[in-house]
Amino acid sequence: MSRLLAVSDIHGHGHLLEQLLVASGYNSERDRLVLLGDYVNKGPDSWGTLQLVHELTRKGAVALQGNNERKWLRSMPDSIPASNDEITSVRQFLDQMPLWHTCDSYLFVHAGIRPGIPLDLQTAEDLTEIRQPFFESPVNPEYTIVFGHTSTYRFLVPPWQIWVGAGKMGIDTGAGHGYYVSLIDLTHRLQWYVSVHSPSIIRCTVIPGSSDLEDKSVYS
User: Fold this and answer.
1) How far apart are CA 111 and CA 195, in angstroms?
2) For FRET with 164, which of 156, 186, 191, 202 sits at 20 to 30 Å CA-CA?
3) What residue stretches are annotated with the Calcineurin-like phosphoesterase domain (predicted)?
4) 76 in Cβ contact with 41 (< 8 Å)
5) Of 7, 154, 127, 117, residue with least CA distance to 67
6) Per-residue pLDDT averaged across 81-104, rounded?
7) Which of 5, 2, 3 is nearest to 191 (CA)?
8) Which of 1, 47, 38 shows the shortest CA–CA distance to 171?
9) 199 preceded by a cis bond (ω within 30 of 0)
10) Averaged pLDDT, 51-62
11) How far is 215 from 206, CA to CA, in rounded Å?
């Protein structure tokens, strides 16, 4: 059975995303994977993480653009260990990333949406940077909006925990702030998460809002 998986705000921790994909049993031919942006900056290996994301998209994943990818488009860091041709290729990859994606009953976006504006008229800045107007907006009855950008600890939940509101789900568990990278299985409402600090222990738990909130298993 195929699963719908999502991850956001990896921030240079591509090696941890690889570990989460292995722990979850990800199969690119069977599962659908959506990445919600902010693959670069703040972490140890932005370039390697981008290469991983690019490879995942070649195998069928969808990678959205985040505000940090937009920063790279405006000004690529001088420290990138790549040739001019490779940098040009990555620029094209970043520039062609979609800003939102729908699948089943979910709308995926990096930061959120501007209330009252049709999707096709939303600005790139709102889709990758919005906060309070989106958080305070009423529920969209058509979709559950899955978003990153704002770390879940800012919603006053433990930093490893997914935030679930009415019609909204925040999945940025703070890798860019020294906390966790999380991979979400929306089909079975499971979360795999791992700290950006050693030891790299991967845990799997049921997403809040389900009937059981206790840890299901632990991987070392």
Assistant:
1) 22
2) 202
3) 3-153
4) no
5) 127
6) 92
7) 5
8) 38
9) yes
10) 97
11) 7
Task: Report yes or no: 103 and 34 within 8 Å, Cβ to Cβ.
Answer: yes
DSSP letter, residue 14: H
What are the structure tokens assigned to 216, written together?
A: 């299901």
CB proximity list for 210: less than 8 A, separation 6 or greater: 189
pLDDT at res. 78: 82
Q: What is the pTM of this model?
A: 0.93
In angstroms, the CA 4 to CA 42 distance is 27
- Reduced to 3 states (helix: H, G, I; strand: E, B; else coil), residue 193 is strand
User: Which residue type does 63 have?
Assistant: A
First to last CA, the chain: 26
Q: In the structure encoding, which two tokens stand for residue 93, read together?
A: 């990859």
Tokens of 56: 């995942």
> At which residue do the structure tokens 């795999």 appear?
192
